[in-house]
Specification:
The chain has about 280 residues and is mainly alpha-helical. The protein has ten helices and no strands. It is a multi-pass membrane protein.
Amino acid sequence: MVKSAQEWSNDWARSAAVKPPSPYVENTFTRPKSWVYHLTLGLFLGGQVLMRVIQGRINRHHVMDYMVAAGPNSLSPVLMTNLFAGMIFTIQTARELIRYGASHALGGAFAVAFCRELAPILTAAILAGQVGSAFAAEIGCMKVTDQIDALKMLRTDPIDYLVVPRVLACCVMLPVLTILSLVVGIAGGVFVAHQFYSIAPAVFLESVRSLLELQDLVMVLFKSTLFGAMIALFACSWGLTTTCSKSVGQSATAAVVTTWVSLFVADFFLSLLLFNGVQIH
């Protein structure tokens, strides 16, 4: 019996109603459960990594390999970004301070904003985009090609083999990159202040020294270590939950976006707790 046009239309509507939406056209943040799920997964994954580090279950050879990926291979974009960020920040700050006759305080304002906040978050964001996305894509490819299942068949713990070395590498290298970023950013600030505003390098650096204390640097290193762990954990969590080959790219992108949002949220609370406490005391 030939179906009428209305029957064909009804059949098409019923099939479209039960057809699940394609996961490849959905944005990560249009699905709150997905973001919250990976945040929670990252926290649990961090607990497992911490337990394995305490137990000494560390593959040092793999840690060194990933330290190269997270350190020297990311050095050029990190230094270039912080160099120009330091110069841009100096230009914008110097205009206002000179207007009020406080050019001698330019280095102090630079130290408070750039050294405490801008350099650590910029360095972490670059590392998340370059290294975090690579980690998520690499582990995602291993997941969809059943290489992780093969590790389990060989009685190799995937957390020990894949996650712990990446987390440790990022925790070690991000503070190193942040310190180098501070040096390069300050050098850019000194150059701009001297060339465009005739502020002597000694005056600029003395102002930096007067407001940037050793305790501030310790807190910056603490923040960088935490940011490094977050980058690796969120990248690994997205890679381990990749379901098919078409979603590898989506997992890499979602890992970067999730990490960026989490970094800024964490940076807000850390700044509120750490640096606000320094001012009170």
